[in-house]
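Batch manifest, entry 17 of 40.
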Amino acid sequence: MIKQKDFFIKQLIAWTKYSNEGEKSMAFSTIYRSIYRSFEFFQSTQVCYSEEAKHILSEITDEKVDLLKCNWRTTVRLKSTGKNANLRNFLVFEHYTTGLEFKKELQFYYVNDKLNEKNVNQLLSKKKIAWISKDEDKELNRLGYKQVRPDPDKAYYEAGINIIECSSVGKLIS
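Output type: structure tokens
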């Protein structure tokens, strides 16, 4: 049985084979958005968190929260009010590899007629999402790493972001 992710990728790649020249730009944009924005839901990425994110979490809630299993919709009960609030009010669910960097790699395969399941899965296997503090995110942006980040490890190091734990691939819940 073909996995849902593999079927999805096959369908997108097949679409490029039947697109005429006028449709190629639209086809690529649709493929990029579909793959980049959907990879979390196919459980093909790692979730990580920074030391600072873990510290902030301990400050805002008494709940036992595993950041490796949280996504952008996760809520927690606040210490201060007892009410539920979205983690995104306090932390950033940040794409470790930016959309622009992912798009550049995908476009290379697309333009060179090498867009295939193996290459798309290879790209997806490098993707990570990290829970970081809003201040850490601001520092990444200040250093010019908002969209352009060819070496995410270097960018995080320069921004002083200490990633302390990452899930294994396939642990993200949608």
